[in-house]
Design goal:
Blueprint (H helix, E strand, L loop, with lengths): L1 H32 L3 H12 L7 H20 L4 H22 L3 H5 L1 H20 L3 H14 L4 H13 L3 H14 L5 E8 L5 E3 L4 H10 L2 E9 L3 H14 L3 H14 L4 H13 L3 H14 L4 H13 L3 H14 L4 H12 L2 H10 L4 H31 L4 H13 L3 H11 L2
Antiparallel strand pairs: 1-2, 1-3
Length: 425
């Protein structure tokens, strides 16, 4: 008898607990509908302690209320990031529970609120990115993606925000998922000019809505904006993050797979080249940059990179030619002018050494004058490029002081004095 007594008591406790839990859920929902969010949260917190052992129907109700509560709190800008993300997590848990139950009753009823939530996540993420709150933006964009995995573009933007926020491991996770899904981001966006605001409105992928707006007379000048494939960029970023983390083998594999799929993608070629640059494999680096140049002959940065490689290899004529080509393609490429001047000045030190070794004989004096003329010619050849640096960037003190010293050697003292007054510390 004693044993049965305790069994009955335990059963009664469970029943009382379940009853109390249902009452707390009812109270939480009632207060939520009345707009009493603090009271609703209190009742929901009381129910949370035993919710995991509750029947699936009660669990579903709990997460349904929880999702709506967090959404309402977010609307009031109350810890917006946490509440938006928590609302999305609650809706996802609700979906999982009802999927196991075999019916999506409450989740379907939440369709309008989920759409509101996704719009809030996206709008808030845009603001976060503008305010450089990249971590918050990435979380919100990822939450939006999880609520509707058909919108893989949100996962792409979540990865981009993670990169901006220097959270490379999270970015790598998202980029790998995008690569696995075969995401390209290649699409057509439909736009038209709003007659009232005279601004371009983006109708996204919805051509019919755009066309109806034009037909109704509210918009004009319909256009199609094409988004190019982002797959090369995704694989490139995967490789860069692997490489940054010291995982060179996975970095090389990512690039190999990407280039096999996109052999003409310049960004992938340059990424692979930079990997070899970091590992000091200069022959492979140079070969890849040359390959990139053949595919994109009007890219000033590629010629600049070839100039750097050539200069490091002491092939000064090739360096000079590549820097000149880079400048011709991009007259504002500041570093190309600086490096070109450096290449031209490379022989000056050797000339000075020879001058210092000469004696006082007539032959030595003649040789001295010859070497002095060569040195002055070198200085004169650099002046246009150093002046161009200051034209592109008037605050470049290194170029300014170098040019001032050259003016002094050449006897152009007024020019030297003016530059020294500006740049001397």
């Amino acid at each position: 008898m004693k044993s049965k007594y305790w069994i009955l008591t335990a059963s009664a406790l469970v029943s009382v607990s379940a009853f109390a839990q249902k009452e707390e859920l009812k109270e939480a929902e009632k207060q939520l509908r009345r707009g009493n969010l603090a009271e609703s949260q209190t009742a929901l917190t009381q129910a949370s302690s035993v919710i995991e052992s509750a029947p699936d129907a009660d669990k579903a109700k709990y997460y349904y209320i929880k999702a709506e509560l967090h959404l309402e709190l977010a609307k009031k800008k109350n810890d917006e990031t946490a509440n938006l993300v928590n609302a999305s997590k609650a809706y996802l848990t609700l979906n999982d529970i009802e999927t196991q139950m075999g019916k999506l009753k409450l989740f379907k009823e939440s369709a309008e609120n989920i759409l509101t939530l996704r719009n809030a996540l996206l709008s808030s993420a845009v603001n976060d990115n503008q305010e450089q709150k990249y971590d918050d933006a990435s979380k919100k964009l990822h939450s939006s993606y999880l609520l509707n995995k058909n919108d893989t573009i949100h996962l792409y933007y979540a990865a981009s925000s993670a990169v901006q926020g220097q959270d490379f491991n999270t970015a790598l996770e998202y980029y790998k998922e995008l690569a696995k899904l075969g995401f390209t981001g290649k699409s057509k966006m439909y736009t038209a000019v709003n007659k009232t605001t005279n601004e371009v409105d983006n109708f996204g992928f919805n051509q019919s809505t755009r066309d109806l707006a034009v037909k109704a007379g509210s918009h004009t000048n319909p256009q199609i904006v094409k988004e190019e494939s982002k797959r090369g960029e995704i694989i490139k970023n995967i490789a860069l993050i692997y490489n940054q983390n010291g995982d060179v083998e996975n970095a090389k594999k990512a690039i190999y797979d990407a280039r096999k799929e996109n052999p003409d993608d310049i960004s992938l070629i340059v990424t692979e080249a930079n990997m070899y640059l970091e590992s000091k494999e200069m022959d492979k680096y140079q070969a890849l940059i040359k390959e990139a140049v053949t595919k994109d002959p009007n890219n000033a940065d590629l010629y600049y990179n070839l100039g750097v490689v050539s200069a490091n290899a002491k092939d000064l004529e090739a360096a000079k030619a590549n820097y000149l080509k880079a400048i011709a393609l991009n007259p504002k490429l500041e570093n190309a002018y600086i490096n070109l001047a450096s290449v031209l000045l490379d022989g000056e030190k050797a000339i000075v050494e020879k001058m210092n070794k000469l004696g006082n004989s007539a032959a030595d004096n003649a040789k001295y004058d010859e070497l002095k003329k060569k040195r002055e010619d070198i200085f004169k050849s650099t002046i246009p490029y150093l002046e161009k640096v200051l034209e592109v960037n008037p605050s470049n003190a290194e170029a300014g002081m170098t040019l001032a010293n050259i003016y002094s050697v050449l006897g152009q003292y007024e020019k030297a004095k003016a530059l020294k007054a500006k740049f001397a510390k």
